[in-house]
Amino acid sequence: MAGGPSRRATLGGLATAAISSSANAQLGTGGRVMPTVLITGANRGLGLEFVRQYQARKYKIIATARKPSEATELLALAKADKNISVEALDVTDLAAIDALAAKLKGVPIDILLNNAGVIGKPLEEVFGSIPYSHFDDVMNTNVRGPLKMCEAFVEHVAASQQRKFAVVTSVEGSVASQKSGARYFYKSSKAALNMAMRNVMFAVKDRGILVAMVCPGGTDTDMIRQLKMNMKFRDPRDAVRDMIGLIDAVTPERSGVSYNYDGTVMPW
Ligand SMILES: NC(=O)c1ccc[n+]([C@@H]2O[C@H](COP(=O)([O-])OP(=O)(O)OC[C@H]3O[C@@H](n4cnc5c(N)ncnc54)[C@H](OP(=O)(O)O)[C@@H]3O)[C@@H](O)[C@H]2O)c1
What we know:
Layout: H1 16-24, E1 27-28, E2 31-32, E3 36-39, H2 45-56, E4 60-65, H3 72-79, E5 84-88, H4 94-103, E6 111-114, H5 135-152, H6 154-158, E7 164-168, H7 184-204, E8 210-214, H8 222-225, H9 236-248, E9 258-259
Parallel strand pairs: 3-4, 3-6, 4-5, 6-7, 7-8, 8-9
Antiparallel strand pairs: 1-2
The protein binds NADP nicotinamide-adenine-dinucleotide phosphate.
């Protein structure tokens, strides 16, 4: 079967049972083998909350940040828990991605969680006077970074029990869902990310690797605060809980399909 011998059978939804079973699949007879998750952009926002929730689920965590020395909250978590390690990584730096993959050679990674992302300067993107200075950064961070991460870490993930690539995508990348002209770079980057990961899904399925594409919904982080919208957004704790449920629930049938936080499939 495409998922390999330890892959769970198709899951219909996001039941809590599915969440705990997935972690328990790592139990070995000689003691508990902890699953490992690598998280990019783990120093704040959703990435930091992923660290907290995977810690609570007894994962080993490789938390990456552009500037670990400034990642106060992450460092405090790592100091108190030997199962959290912090690595420096800028996902726009292709050589740095290769270097980290080489440093971690032989370490199985159950979930490669591509969370890091940028939105650029969305309020300045007014049609007719769009400033293009942020375009490369948005695309390199949101599209090229996750794609290169999957290439660089494919052996680590293939050697693990769960074998999952995960990306934090957005309904903003769903072409059919757009109702207004705005955020040209960010929306384009998430649509491109979806396309890239859909293709990665085909490239890795024979190795038993699944691709989870998950959207948190509009969530209260630094990113969304940049939009200066006067509305209430989701609590990061709820958003991450939902995304972890979706990552747990990925199956060969759900691989390479993007899901909103509530479990609905997002149209391309
Ligand atoms: N919040 C939402 O409503 C929402 C909705 C849909 C999808 N998302 C997605 O969720 C993910 C996390 O966003 P967030 O809301 O948590 O935003 P955030 O609070 O702004 O955090 C973004 C994270 O990405 C990191 N990052 C940015 N550029 C990077 C780079 N080149 N290399 C490595 N790390 C980099 C940041 O690190 P620094 O501290 O070094 O800048 C930070 O840790 C993103 O992919 C975003 O597109 C968010």
